[in-house]
Amino acid sequence: MRIRLLSPLIVTGIFFLCASLGEAFPELVRHGYNTCMACHVSPTGGGMLTPYGRKLAAELLTTWGSEASTGVTWGLTDQENLETALWLGGDIRGAQVHQENTSIRAGRFIKMQASLAAAWVRNAWTVFFELGKQEGEVWQPYGTSFWGKFDASENVSLRAGRFVPAYGLHSSDHIAFIRSFTGFGLEANRDAFEARYATETVSVSLTASKEPRLSGSEEALSLAADLSLSEKHLIGLNVLRGDRDGNRRTLYGVWASLGLSKRAYYLGELDWQNRDGSSNTASFVTYHRLGYSIVKGFDIYALYERLESDLARASSSIERRGPGVQWTPLPHIEISGAWTKQRLNAPNPMEEDYAWLVLHYWL
Amino acid sequence: MKPKGGFMFRSQKSRIVVLAFLTTTLPTLAQAKPLRLVPDSANTEFIGIGRPALLKVKGQAKEMVAAIDMTDGTVSGEFKVPLKNLDSGIELRDEHMKNKYLAVGQFPEAILKVESLKVDANKDRKTIPFTGTLTLHGVAKPVTGEAQVEGRETRYAVDAKFNIKLSEYGIDIPRYAGITFADNVDINVRFEADSK
Fold this sequence. Notes:
Chain A has about 375 residues and is mainly beta. Chain A is built from four helices and 17 strands.
């Protein structure tokens, strides 16, 4: 009985792991980086790095990084010459998941992602293209991202194509409940048009998006805004209104990315969702991560998250808490993982161990 | 016979004492009185924007050597900030900033000479315009700014802000991996001084 109950959980966990293949480090706010655009090609963060992001990875994120080794070819070619023509990138990612309780003890390795990306940046124009594969339950071509961006001015940009709309913390925690809850998990890329206004302290993105599915795709309008309270304190709020086959959802939330010191940081997000239509439910998710950098590139953190898929039923909640590590020994290589206690407040409450280790190579 | 009206001296001796007092004290009332920089109170910050990412770059130096005088409620002085310990929070950026752009080996200090900053003792914080000369990278240029000054008996807290253009000081505009630093940089100088 329990095994039958748990199997979907393993699948769900894998699903979450594959979710959000974007990679961002909002904890860099502790070094004064409260904008994604300096390090990522996408203005909303995650994924392919800019030349500046590559160099910063060596300087701030890696234990034994050197400026030369941050390029696509590890310094074998003149990176700057290469970058004048085209920016290149890509990711290979895999994870080992472990689940253990009184009924089962299961582990599995998942090939999560393999992709190649290129960006052409000239004056006010950016054209981005990514092609790759991702594993759900089977290894399959995954949501290719492609978009063009025009910077109408220093503060205003317009973007159209297929990409993940701005919403919430763009955390590198792939398993976090917030990713799947918000709908920006697996196959998060959407056909979208985004208008963005940004200054050094405020950014506002308005996005109209549609899931690229043949049927049952959600059409949504979302607003994401963030405000720098200081160089090291960033807060944000988001609203999304989506329609899928006559069913409407309203999603809204707040988040914070706070540098507590040069070594310590806090990331947190809360989201609420109301669904109208065939299922009238209200749900809630929260995510909190308190991290500390022991040495450059090696962070430990404490994680707490809670998902309540139906606020009317206390038994619908899942809670997860535990320690984690994130280590980037060299440019291009990231190892992260956590060992959590997961509590399911189902009709028969149960606690189990849930752990994951993610290996990531970025080109 | 008593003189009519005015101040009356009872004797020639009294007149001499008062005159002697006035001649010795009046000049000193207009003389400059040195103020002492309160230890560990100084902080000099710069804030600039990197484009196109609108990246805010902030750095600071906590050391300062100052010679400050006050004359009739007007502060003037020379503030020297050693640039070798300028810290922007990222080692590589500091290295580029100090060696490649500011050339601190050749020009180790930024010197701000403030000509007139009028302050009132025992007043709440208020904003006062000031003028001065900043010597940076071996180039001296006039600067104007505003200072918030709070006076408490013999102690003054000063928070001065002004803006400079790097190009006017012969400093190359910093560029790194596609990010270009703004020519305009905001400078913020904070310190406390007392007359003890």
